[in-house]
Write a structure and sequence with these properties.
The complex is a heterodimer. Chain A is an all-alpha fold. Chain A has helices spanning about 5-25, 40-65, 70-100, 110-130, 135-150, 150-160, 180-215, 220-225. In chain A, α2 (about 40-65) packs parallel to α7 (about 180-215), α3 (about 70-100) runs antiparallel to α4 and α4 (about 110-130) packs antiparallel against α6. The two termini of chain B are about 20 Å apart. The chains are: A mainly alpha, B mainly alpha. The interface of A and B includes residues 127, 147 and 151 of A.
Chain lengths: ~230, ~220
């Protein structure tokens, strides 16, 4: 078993423990009942997604500064994992909303900006697929990643800037009882670890892909294209 | 080379070539009229609901016309491979980009000059300075973003697919604020001045970001 497999198993085990804490340790919400337990993973994956998009931003900036292929690979990995966690946030939020608001979707600022975030980074992944691989795709994607990050603070502050149906921050406002807070913080830590492990594994995959295509080393491409010496 | 003169020269070149060929503006003007027609039959507009539907039709038509206008800006250069020639001159890529963005926004403004009167003609909504100002202020930031991504996708295979996909999500802030501004200018509830100041904030933010990023998009 290599270290990626060990890390993956560790991250999944942590998520299972978090799941146990969510269902057996955290108290049931008095008003909403068991559906409130969605909260723990819903908010944690949103935070993990923000972290992933921060990786895309930093990777993009570093790539534009010095064309480091490693930075670009980190950005690629971060975007993919971030889209996964944004999807989790949106889907779990919709399930929760159906129960407590009566509709899967309302067009308030938090939901809209999160959907836009998802579209932006899904677009980022499409740029990677459609642009000619190599420097061009990496540069364009870095620009998209930097522009796209503008939406992250918008999502975060949307509940304070506008009147939304989506509730405002509960953690920093000290609105949670201690057991819920502990469960949330533990779930959040586990989710962030999971995201980090996923990025690391994805980074490894991207490295292997790059090595196969040798896109970032023009010298190797030239050598590979040289005709066989005539015997 | 003075970047302002470069930008001006590029913008004048683009506008002159549009003046000689008269391709983009007539086509887009017709597109906009058709969009208004589709809006009318899609929504069953009458004098009671016109004020609530017209802003939506306005932004839909404007957004898609904008995509075509900005896509065309770099498409013509690509067909002639003239962008590479321009980039080989000592002129700074940012100045070239700025010139093309200015020309493209002027073309879009020419289309807006058709759209806004047509909107109030067909739907009976007020044609006021407030509506014009909101649309023009939104055009500034939208043009900067649209041209940046148009320049970016010009050399990508699936450019027609990618341009809307990249541009539309980042235009949404302008559509939210601009939508609110036009709605309140047409008599619906909502604060006009608040929406306008938000639009100006977005303009400044994206103009700064675009001017920083333009170098990486054009410079190959």
């Amino acid at each position: 078993m290599n270290r990626y497999e060990r890390a993956a198993i560790g991250a999944v085990a942590l998520m299972l423990i978090a799941g146990a804490a969510i269902f057996f340790y955290a108290p049931t919400d008095y008003l909403q009942g068991p559906v409130q337990r969605i909260f723990y993973l819903h908010v944690s994956s949103a935070i993990a997604a923000f972290g992933c998009f921060a990786v895309v931003l930093v990777g993009g900036v570093i790539y534009l500064r010095n064309e480091s292929p490693a930075a670009d690979r980190f950005a690629r990995s971060g975007a993919l994992v971030g889209v996964v966690f944004t999807t989790v946030t949106l889907v779990m939020g919709m399930l929760w909303a159906k129960t407590v608001w009566g509709a899967f979707w309302v067009w308030d600022a938090r939901l809209t900006s999160t959907l836009v975030l998802w579209i932006i980074y899904a677009g980022y992944l499409l740029v990677r697929r459609l642009a000619d691989p190599g420097r061009q795709a990496a540069r364009f994607a870095a620009v998209v990643g930097i522009f796209g990050f503008v939406d992250v603070p918008v999502v975060h502050f949307s509940v304070t800037w506008w009147t939304t149906q989506h509730p405002g921050p509960v953690i920093i406002n000290d609105a949670l009882p201690p057991q819920m807070l502990a469960t949330f913080l533990f779930t959040m830590a586990c989710t962030v670890v999971l995201a980090a492990v996923m990025i690391a594994i994805r980074y490894r995959i991207e490295t292997l892909v790059d090595e196969r295509e040798q896109l970032f080393d023009p010298a190797k491409v030239l050598v590979a294209r040289e005709p066989e010496p005539v015997q | 080379m003075n970047p302002f003169r470069v930008a001006l020269a590029v913008a004048r070149k683009d506008l002159r070539s549009e003046w000689r060929t008269r391709e983009v503006v007539p086509a887009l003007a017709q597109f906009i009229i058709l969009a208004l027609l589709i809006g009318n039959f899609g929504f069953q507009v009458d004098s009671r609901n016109a004020a609530s539907i017209a802003p939506g039709i306005l932004w839909l038509a404007l957004v898609f016309a904008g995509l075509v206008a900005f896509g065309r800006t770099f498409a013509a250069e690509r067909e002639q491979a003239s962008l590479e020639a321009m980039l080989m001159t000592p002129a700074s890529p940012v100045a070239i980009f700025a010139g093309k963005a200015v020309a493209a926004s002027l073309l879009l403004i020419a289309c807006e000059a058709v759209m806004l009167p047509a909107l109030s003609l067909f739907f009976g909504t007020p044609f006021s300075a407030d509506v014009v100002a909101a649309v023009l202020i939104a055009t500034v930031g939208m043009a900067a973003l649209g041209c940046l991504f148009a320049a970016m996708v010009a050399r990508v295979r699936a450019r027609e697919l990618l341009l809307p996909l990249l541009t539309l999500p980042l235009w949404i802030p302008f559509i939210i604020a601009g939508g609110q501004a036009v709605q309140s200018a047409m008599g619906l509830p909502g604060s006009y001045s608040e929406a306008i100041s938000l639009l100006i904030d977005f303009d400044i933010l994206f103009l700064v970001l675009t001017s920083l990023a333009a170098r990486f998009v054009l410079d190959e």
